[in-house]
Amino acid sequence: MAAYDVMLGYCLPTQHLKKKIDHINTAIRNCDANKTLVALMKPEAQLPVVHPFAAAVYQTELFNLQQQNARYLAHDELSIAVEMLSAVVLLNQALGSKDILAIKNHLRNPSVGFNNVEDENFQRYADTLLSIKSEASSQGQDYLSWNDVQNCIDMVNMQVQEENDRIVAVSYINEAIDQGNPGKTLETLLLPTVKLHDVNPTNARHYQDVLHDAKVQKCKESHDESAVLWLDEIQKGINDANSNIEKAANLALGTSMINNCLEKHDSQPVLDILQSPKFGLRVVPECAETYYKNLLEAKNLKTKEDSSEGPWLKLIMKNRYDYYYNVETGESTFVPPEGFIPKTSWLTSEEIQTIVGQVTADYNREQLWFANENLILQLQALARGFLVRKSYEERKGFLQKQEPSVIKIQASWKGYKQRKSYTDRLRVLQGNVAAIVKVSCSMLSKVFSLWSFFQNEEIVKIQAFLRANKARDDYRTLIGAENPPLNVLRKFAYLLDQSDLDFQEELEVTRLREEVVTKIRSNQQLEKDLNLMDIKIGLLVKNRISLQDVVLHSKKLNKKSKNQVEEMVTGDKQGIKGLSKERRKQLEAYQHLFYLLQTNPMYLAKLIFQMPQNKSTKFMDTVIFTLYNYASNQREEYLLLKLFKTALEEEINSKVDQIQDIVTGNPTVIKMVVSFNRGARGQNSLRQLLAPVVKEIMDDKSLLINTSPVEVYKAWVNQLETQTGEASKLPYDVTTEQALEHPEVVNRLESSIQSLRTVTDKVLVSIFSSLSMMPYGMRYIAKVLKNSLHEKFPDATEDELLKIVGNLLYYRYMNPAIVAPDGFDIIDMTAGGQIHSDQRRNLGCVAKVLQHAASNKLFEGESAHLSSMNTYLSQTYQKFRNFFQIACDVPEPEEKFNIDEYSDMVTLSKPVIYISIEEIINTHSLLLEHQDAIAPEQNDLLNELLKGLGAVPDVESFLGEGAVDPNDPNKENTLSQLAKTEISLSLTSKYELQEGEDQDLKGLMIKTKRLVVDVIRTQPGDTLLEILEIPASAQQESEHLKVVEKRAILDSKTPEKMKHSQSMLEDGQLPIEQKKRKIQRNLRTLEQAGLVSSANKYQEIINEIAKDIRNQRRYRHHRKAELVKLQQTLSALQSKTAFYEDQVNYYNTYIKTCLDNLTRKNSRRSIKLDGKVEEKGSKKLKHTSLKYTAARLHEKGVILEIEDLQTNQFKNVMFDITPGEEMGDFEIKAKFLGVQMEKVELHFQDLLQMQYEGVAVMKMFDKAKVNVNLLIFLLNKKFYGK
C-alpha cells in the first residue's frame, strides 16, 4: 500500500503536466495568441520565462513548429522552443531600441542556439541586424525570426571570410609584383577571391610594369619601403594599363594611316584622321593643305633604306613605357619583338603631333595679329607719344637748369628799376621841404585830438571787446580754415611753448603710469599664486598631495604678498643708469628694438601665430601687455589696438575658412582682446556695466529661478516630505517628460519663466543703456571683426555678421561675468566668501536666455519645455541686433586719440616701459627663433637690430661680471630672482634723422617746423617765402636772441627723459639768418619729396604747424583727463591688492588650523620648519622599477595609441618606470626591441594638476597618447599602495 502511494505521488504531477501541455497545444491550434500566452505563462507548465508583449510571435512560431511535428508539441520541445523564442524576442527588442551592447549580449546567450557565432564579428552582426531590422520595418515586418537572425550571422561570416581571402590575395599580388614575374603577377590578379575587373591575360607584361611603378611611387611618397598596394590601387593600376594600351593602339593606328596617305599622296583623308580622337589634337580645318604639305615635306626628308627598314613603329607612352606596332600585321606588344628593326622612313607619332601643333600655333598667332590690329596701332601711337614727351621733358629740364641765371638777370633788372624810382622820389622831396613841414604840423594837431578822444574808459572797453572778438575769429580761422594765413598762425605760435605746469603734469602722469603698471603686474602674480593655492588646497582635501606642499607654497605666497610690491616699486627701475657702464650700449639697442616692435604691429602679429597656442598665451599675458604698459595712456592704447587689428586681420585671412570658425575656433586674437578688456584696465568698465543689476538680482532673497523640470520636481517632492513627515509615494528619479506630467511642476516652471523674463529685462536695460561704458577697444575690435569678415565673405548676410559680433561682445565679454561675478570682480566678496547656489543658478538662467537671444537661437530639443519664451527671444534678438550695430559705429583710433605719425616727435616725454630682464631675454630668443618668418626680407629693420644685438645673453652676462658671486651656493636661485628684476626702458627710434641726413622725411619735417616757428615769431611777413627772402633787422635779431636765451633756461630745468634730441637743441641755438638758410635747404628737400610746394608759397608747412597747435591744446586736455583716470585706476588696484592680502591671511589661518589638528592627532608625519617632511615608521617609496610592454599598458587602458606604430607591434615596445630621488618624480624610459629610444621625466604633481583641470589624455614622447586618470591609478597602486 505504501508503494502504491509513492507511485501515485509520482504519477499525479506527470498527469497534471501532460494536461497543461495538451491545453497549450489546443490553444496553439486554435490560433488564439492571448490564450496561448496565458497557457504558456502558467507555472504548472514548467516552461521558461515568457514575455507578454510578444504574444503574436509565440503564437505564430509555435503554430508553424506544431504543424511540422504532427500537430503536437511535447513538453521538452515546448521548453526548448519557448526558451529560444524568448531569447529572439529580447534580441528584437534590443534591435528596436538600437542598444548595441544588449544586442551583443543576446547574441552570446547560449539559450538562443545560434550557430557559427564568432566573437570578433559581434559588431558586424549588430550593425547588419539593425540594417535588416530597419528594412523589414519599412516593409511592415516588425519581427525578425530565428532563421532571419541565423541567415544574417551566416551572411556576415561569409562577408568576413571573403574580406580575409581578399586581403590574402592582395598580399599575394604584392609579392608577385616584387618578384617581377609578369606570369606570376597575372596568375594572382586572376585569383577569384580578389574580384578584380577587366584583367586581360595578353597585357600581363604591362600590368607588371604599371603596378611595379605604382608601388615604387607609394614607397617613395610614404617613406616606407615596406608599403604595399591596396586593392583599389591595384584595380586603378589595371585600369590605367588597359587605358594605356587602348590609347597606344589608337595612336599607332592613326600614325600608320597618316603615313599610308602620305605615301599614296592622298591629302583628302589626312584632315579627318588628324581630327579623330586618336591623336587628341586641336586641328583647324582652314590649315588642311598646310598640314598635308608640311607632313609630306617632313616625310620626304626621311631616308629609306630597304635593306635595314623593318615593319615596326615604336611609341613611348607616358615617357616610360615602350609600345611596338607592326604596320603590316597590326600586331602590338609592350615587349621588344625579336629582331626589332624600326620603320625609319615613316613619321613617328611625336613628329606628326609636333608638325600639326606648330602649324596650328602659327595660324592662331596670325589670326591674333589680325584681330588686334587696332591695338597695335594704338601701341605704336603711344610709343610715338612717349618719344615726343621725352623730348619735351628734356627741353624743359634744360630750361629749369638755367633758372638761377634767369633769376639773377631778373633781380639785376628789378634792382636797377627800384633804385632809379627811389632817386627820382628823393629829388622830388628835397625840392619841396617847406611844403612837407607845413603838412606835418597840420597832421600832428589832428593826432593829438584823436589821442585825447581814445583815452575815454568806454572806448577802452570797446577796444578790448573788439580785440577779444578778433582773437576768437582768428582762432576759429586757425582751427577751421583749410589754409590758415601766416599772420593768424603767428598770433598763436606761443601755444607750442612748454610751461613749468606742462612738465609737472607730465612727470606726474609718468609717475602714476609707473605705479599703475607695477600694481597690475603685482596683482596678476598674486592672483596666479592664489589660484594655485586654491588648487593645492583642493588636492589636499582629496588626499592627493601632502600638507607639506601646501605649507611650502604658503610660505612663498606670504613672501610675495608682503615683499613683491615693495620689490617691484623700489627695485632697479633706473634703466640704463642702474646697470654697469659697459652694458649701456646693449640696453640702448634693446630700447631701439622694443620701440620698433611697439610701433610696427606686423612683427608681433606674425610672432603670435608662429608660436604654439600655449606659448603664445603666456607671451601675450606678459611681454605684449608689458610692452604696451597695459594701455595706461592713449599712445599705448592706440598702438595696442593697432596690434589687435593687424593680428585679427592676419588670423582671419590665414586661418578662417568658414565664417563660423570665429565662433568655434576660439581665435588667439579674440582671446587677447577679451582677456585685456576684462583685465586690469577693462574690469572697471565691466563692473560699472553689470555690477548694479547683478547685485540687485543677488540681493533679492525671494528670487528662485529654476528652469529644469527634473530639479523642480525633486524640490517639490522634498517639500512634500518635509511638510508631511512621511515618505512620498512619487518616484524620485524621473525623466523630463515624466516630471512635466505633474501640474504642480508645470505651474512652478511657468512662475520661474515669468520671473526669468522680468530679471532678464532688467539686465537688458542695463546693457543697452550703458553702451557708452563699454571700452572703446572692445567696440573697435568688433568693428574690425565685422569689416574683415565682410571683406573675406562678401556673400555673408548682415545677420550672420552681427551674430559673430554678438559672440564677441556678449558671449565672450559679458556672459562669463554674469555667470560668475565673483570670478571677474563684478561684486565685492570677502575672503572665503562664496555665492549661494540659488544665486548662481538665477544668474546662470539669465545668462542662458541672453546667450540664446544674442545668437537668435530658440529653445528646442532638450529645452523644448522653455519654448514659450521663443517669441521673447526673437524680440530680444532684434534689440541685440540694433545694439551690436550701434556698438560697431565707432571712429578710427587716429580720430579717437588724435594721434598720427608725428605724435612721438612732438610729445614732451619719451615712451617708457617697465620690463623684467627675463622678459627681455625671452623676447629676444623668440625673435631669433622665428626671424625668418616675421622678417623675411634681408634689409628689414628688425634684422639689422637683431644682428646688432647678437646672440641671446643669459642673466649673468646681461648684468655683467660681478653681479653674482661665483662661489655662492645659491647662485641659481639668486640668478632666478635677478631675472625678475624690472628695469625701465626709454624707447627711442634708432633711425631718427641726424645732422646732415635727409633720409627721414618725417624727422626733417619736424625740424623744419620748429625752425619756421622760431623765425615767424620774431620776423613778420605775409608769406613764408617773403620772410625767408627778406633779411632780419637788428631789432628782430635781438628779439630772437631773447627767445633763444629763455628757451635755454627752460631746457636746463627740463628732466632728462623729456629733453629733445641733441640735434634739435643745437638747431634752436642758431641765429635767425642761419635758421632761415637751413629752412630753405630743408624746404627744397621736402619739395623734391612732394611734401611741400613753392608754387603756393609753402602753405603745406603752415598747415602742419596749425595742426600741431590744435593737437597741443587737445593733448593738454587729454593729459588732465588721463591724470584723473590713472588716479582712479590706482585706487581700484590698491583695493584689489587689499582683497588679495585678505585672502592670503584667510589661507594662512586655514593652514595653521590644519597644522594644529595634525599636531593634536600625533600624526606619524611631521612637518619641520624648513619645510622638509619627516615620516616615522612609514614605508619608503620603493625604488625598484616597473616594466611593462606597450601591449600590456594598452590592455590596461593606460596607452591609447602610439603614432606610426600598429597595435600588433606594441609587444616590441617596453616601458621602464623608475621612481626618482624626490617624492613624486618618475623617470620613464621607452625601449624598442631592447634598444633604448627615449626617456622622459614625469612629475606626479603635474598629473594631478591635469586631472584637476579635466585633461583626460596627454602625450608622452610626443608620440604615445596616455590616459591620465589610469596612469595616476597605476602609479598610486604600484608605488603608494592606494
UniProtKB/TrEMBL annotation:
GO molecular function ontology, one term from the record: GTPase activator activity
Pfam families in UniProt: IQ (PF00612), RasGAP (PF00616), RasGAP_C (PF03836)
Residue stretches making up the Ras-GAP domain: 622-855
UniProt-listed PANTHER family: RAS GTPASE-ACTIVATING PROTEIN WITH IQ MOTIF (PTHR14149), RAS GTPASE-ACTIVATING-LIKE PROTEIN IQGAP2 (PTHR14149:SF12)
GO biological process, one term: mitotic actomyosin contractile ring assembly actin filament organization
Name of the protein this chain belongs to: Ras-GAP domain-containing protein
Domain of life: Eukaryota
InterPro entries xrefs: IQ_motif_EF-hand-BS, RasGAP_C, RasGAP_CS, RasGAP_dom, Rho_GTPase_activation_prot, WW_dom
Organism: Gopherus agassizii
